[in-house]
DNA sequence: AATTTATTTGCAAAATATTGCAATAATGTT
DNA sequence: AACATTATTGCAATATTTTGCAAATAAATT
């Protein structure tokens, strides 16, 4: 068994399951662990893999933070995002609030959609950074570091200067009698304004937030034109909203 | 199970549901909580997540990539940044323009400095995300995707609502007779406003921009109170500005 | 203040790396 | 073909790193 042969086997192994261990290879190749170690070193020097204590791992093709982002797309959010797309038409001005659901929507906007997105969410703006045709207006204000959105009266004023066609809410709690509520006071104030300046309002939600309430009031459920969830519109939990004349998707 | 494997699992877990707990991971990975803690520390050091008591949470959804967009010329920017720090005092309201020099300043602000930073630059805001005591006001407006700053009249209006103690300009061209100029029209308009609303203005520069001019005019050099460069203040290229009464550092 | 819970620190045992060296194999030179 | 030269390999002695444990701190909770 010559070295080149071993190197190839090691590479194959790494590309197959992203890691190899010294002991394992030593046995498989009938050479000492030292030799395997040295082989790995050669490959690591060529940047073909990354040597780690006890073996080697594949050279990650993309930096970690990207990788982390892609997993962020849980199935249900993709479902919701795809449902939203049918509401978006070229030329519209659309408000996006902060939140992972709206972020998922922003990330999945088709490349040829020409809308103007107005948002107070850095992640949303950031997701649209590379989008070729979407115009982004960022509503400034005091930076709320934990959620990376802006809040406060400057943000509210920024929204007040907009007339939007559509407003997309991330997940808040909705309850037929109590109305739309959220956990954060500032967030509630901003959402009130977003509803005010939009012709139409869509709320994204998951089943666990339906028929629940949080501390801060945004408005009655009748402010919502449409509720989009990850489940079938026929779900019985949603019937109360249908009766209230809300479009359930 | 090698360490790299564990790190990957932890990252995946965090990106999936935004948090992990020590006990949970300890069991899943068959290692002690201490080891998990140390693993998390490693990841936290790389800014891939944030360690918290009892586990870890996902780092901000904002991708890092523009935080680290231009890594080059770090040395001279660090020099400049350190010179700036002596101008910053607790309680001040400071305007930061977009640009890699001001970004370097933002990144090197000491942890106990309590100032309010007003900026139209996403990278600057992002760099201050983890800063414990700096308040950030973001000047909203139309997103200028290539530099990831906001521009336009909304941005200018946002700055007009501020009275700042200090304004820190990134690198523009300066010329004793022609004045302060820059390559971009929108940028020039915003910088004019920034000067207007600030008591004091500091320009960061490198030697290659001194005695040069670009297409768009911001104002006469006398608008500048201080010029900070990466070279000695005694450099003869700078003498004209000293004579104009500008503080050279 | 008392109690629980989590973190830090020092430490020792285990696992893994490094280094020098000798034996062997491969290669080149006359 | 015989010889010298060089590279590869395994081994052993010696570092270094990782890991879990326990005691001491620190932080949150009651």
UniProtKB/TrEMBL annotation, chains A, B:
What keywords appear on the UniProt entry?
A: DNA-binding, Repressor, Transcription, Transcription regulation
According to the entry, every stretch annotated as the HTH deoR-type domain falls at 3-58
| Pfam name, any one | DeoRC
Citing just one GO molecular function, the answer is: DNA binding
Task: Read off the InterPro entries from this record.
Answer: Carb_Metab_HTH_regulators, DeoR-like_C, DeoR_HTH, NagB/RpiA_transferase-like, Tscrpt_reg_HTH_DeoR_CS, WH-like_DNA-bd_sf, WH_DNA-bd_sf
- SUPFAM superfamilies in the cross-refs: NagB/RpiA/CoA transferase-like (SSF100950), Winged helix' DNA-binding domain (SSF46785)
The protein, known as:
DNA-binding transcriptional regulator of sugar metabolism, DeoR/GlpR family
Q: Which organism is it from?
A: Mucilaginibacter gossypii
Q: What is the lineage of its organism?
A: Bacteria, Pseudomonadati, Bacteroidota, Sphingobacteriia, Sphingobacteriales
């Amino acid at each position: 068994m010559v070295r080149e042969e071993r190197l190839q086997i090691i590479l194959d192994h790494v590309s197959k399951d992203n890691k190899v261990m010294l002991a394992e290879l030593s046995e498989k190749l009938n050479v000492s662990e030292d030799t395997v170690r040295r082989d790995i070193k050669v490959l690591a020097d060529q940047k073909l893999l990354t040597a780690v204590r006890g073996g080697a791992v594949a050279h990650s093709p993309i930096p970690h933070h990207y990788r982390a982002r892609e997993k962020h797309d849980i199935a249900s959010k993709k479902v919701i995002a795809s449902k939203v797309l049918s509401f978006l038409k070229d030329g519209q001005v659309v408000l996006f609030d902060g939140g992972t659901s709206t972020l998922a929507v922003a990330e999945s906007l088709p490349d040829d959609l020409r809308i103007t997105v107005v948002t107070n969410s850095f992640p949303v703006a950031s997701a649209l950074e590379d989008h070729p045709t979407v115009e982004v207006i960022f509503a400034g204000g005091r930076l709320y570091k934990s959620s990376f959105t802006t809040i406060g009266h400057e943000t509210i004023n920024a929204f007040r200067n907009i007339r939007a066609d559509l407003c997309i809410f991330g997940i808040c709690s909705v309850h037929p009698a109590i109305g739309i509520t959220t956990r954060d006071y500032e967030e509630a104030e901003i959402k009130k304004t977003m509803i005010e300046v939009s012709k139409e309002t869509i709320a994204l939600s998951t089943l666990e937030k339906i028929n629940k309430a949080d501390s801060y009031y945004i408005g009655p459920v009748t402010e919502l034109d449409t509720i989009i969830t990850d489940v079938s519109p026929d779900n019985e939990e949603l019937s109360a909203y249908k009766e209230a004349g809300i479009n359930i998707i």
